[in-house]
Amino acid sequence: MTRRSPLDAPPWIKLSLIALVVTYIAIVVLLPLGAVFTEAFAAGFSSWMAAVTEPDAQAAIKLTLLVAAIAVPLNTVFGIIASWAIAKHDFSGKALLISLIDLPFSVSPVVSGLVYVLLFGAGGWLGPWLEEHDIQIIFALPGLVLATMFVTFPFVARELIPVMQSQGRDEEEAALSLGATGWQTFRKVTLPNIRWGLLYGVLLTNARAMGEFGAVSVVSGHIRGETNTMPLHIELLYNDYNLSAAFAVASLLAGLALVTLVLKTILEWRHGDGLVARGH
Amino acid sequence: MATGSSRGGIETMTITVDAVSKDFDGHSALKGLSLDIPDGTFVALLGPSGSGKTTLLRIIAGLAYADSGHILFDGDDVTAVPVQQRNIGFVFQNYALFRHMSVAENIAFGLDVMKRRQRPSKADRTARVEELLDLVRLDGLGARYPTQLSGGQRQRVALARALARKPRFLLLDEPFGALDAKVRNELRGALRTIHDQLGLTSIFVTHDREEAFGLADRIAILNNGRIEQYGAPDDISAAPASDFVREFLQ
Q1: B35 - beta bridge partners?
Q2: Nearest neighbour of A178 by CB, restricted to B85, B99, B109
Q3: C-alpha to C-alpha distance for A232 and A139, rounded to whole angstroms
Q4: Side-chain half-sphere of A172: how many Cα atoms within 13 Å?
Q5: Number of domains making up chain A
Q6: What does pTM read for this prediction?
Q7: What are the beta bridge partners of residue B46?
Q8: Any idea what DSSP says for residue B75?
Q9: What percent of chain A has pLDDT over 70?
Q10: Chain B hits for A176, Cβ within 8 Å
Q11: Distance between CA atoms of residues B85 and B72, nearest Å
Q12: Which end of chain A lies in a sparser environment, N or C, as judged by fewer CB atoms within 10 Å?
């Protein structure tokens, strides 16, 4: 007989707790997700195909991918710079900078969208100037990208700061003492050490960038075929009582999220140590 | 840079520490400390924790900067010269090996990052790595990764890596601190042998007086950011310069 660890609860409590968690996840997470796919294909595969290939849906899919393709790389670069500055250097105001990075987590996305309207909208602070120079930010691609960047900014930095802090500065100092320049040190020592954590942060950023609704909704203007991303397109279809089409596009979005989840799980499984503290 | 022979041709120089002070958050780590290190000597910086010995080593290396005072290498003021250009070899307390690189890649790092014009050819670099692996008696382990090595072996890799560019000086921060007694004794002997072979001016930091007295040509005993006594081990034992030294040696 194997002895229980002192921290383990008695078997019956353990089993009931596990059952409770599984039931909860089934009701709150799996049931809705299952419903999405069931509803999406309820009217048959051909109507699903028609819903995701009609021009407005296609435009929404392309716009979502385009916004993610711009926002994710930018936030990856900024996230690396921010976490490098914070984890590898000492300066006053560091705690404040960390709080600022967390800001998008605590501010409602709708508020951040409104801020951009206030800044760049027709009646906003920079509105007249932008109009004069024929620059369109709100109700156009730049606004969608900005709103998405705001919401997804923390993910890469939040993932990398603990990884970099746990690795310390020793290896960087060693590289410098061996004659490496700052850039060589970053490229050959810092970056390889954080690669799995970085990939993880990028995946999270991408998942959120494609799924973001609130902030994007405020700055989009909901022009069909032009400024509608997938989540916004789904809402429009739903408001039009076009439920089967709404679920069809939703299933596509959920599918993208599931792919991200699978990649994330593989990363955690194969390189869990590189995500938390140590390499190899 | 010639890579043919590591035994000859290394020019050793004198290190002068001139009235160096350093504060950390209002607490002074070094208080106008001066020290002269002659060619080819093996010097120990010995003292209790908080005495400023590691800070002094890092300032000599260029990994930290002094608030005031100067560092001279063979008469040249290097106070403002960055660590990359000081051409020193530094062995870190916890080795600081590059965890994603093999032993051979770790040792070759200093050669690989050299400017294209100065960088030895690929063949010369490989030969130099082999030569260093031989010097620290790790032949055949070049393809291993740091996590596959014992503590003593990691220390040897760190030493080989620090020697790859034929540095002017070798600086070691608590080089045996993390090792068990048996490995420590073995490595001490190895380090002394390598020092004598290369004739390289070397400074190591330690809090272990037995280690300092067993290994060094000269010992600087530090206390509270100042040097209490600096001299040959026998002279210090024979005539402790202060009550602190007398007590510390007991």
Answers
A1: B17
A2: B109
A3: 13
A4: 18
A5: 2
A6: 0.80
A7: B206, B221
A8: T
A9: 95
A10: 63, 82-84
A11: 14
A12: N
Interfacial residues of A (vs B; Cβ cutoff 8 Å): 170-171, 173-181, 184, 188-189, 192-193, 278-280
* ipTM of the prediction: 0.88
- The distance of B109 to chain A (nearest Cα, Å) reads 7
Which residue from B minimizes the CA distance to A178? B110
Note whether A29 and A88 are same-domain residues.
Answer: no
Amino acid at A250: A
To test the contact with chain A by mutation, choose from B1, B83, B98, B114 the residue with the greatest count of A C-beta atoms within 10 A, namely: B98
The answer to whether the Cβ–Cβ distance between A180 and B84 falls below 8 Å is yes
Q: Which amino acid is at A183?
A: W
User: Per residue in B32-59, pLDDT tens?
Assistant: 999 999 989 999 999 998 899 999 999 9
The CATH code of the domain that includes B170 is 3.40.50.300
Q: How far apart are CA B192 and CA B96, in angstroms?
A: 22
Domain containing residue A92: CATH number:
1.10.3720.10
Residue of A nearest to B63 (CA): A173
3-state secondary structure at position A274: helix
Phi, psi of A183 (to 5 degrees): -70, -40
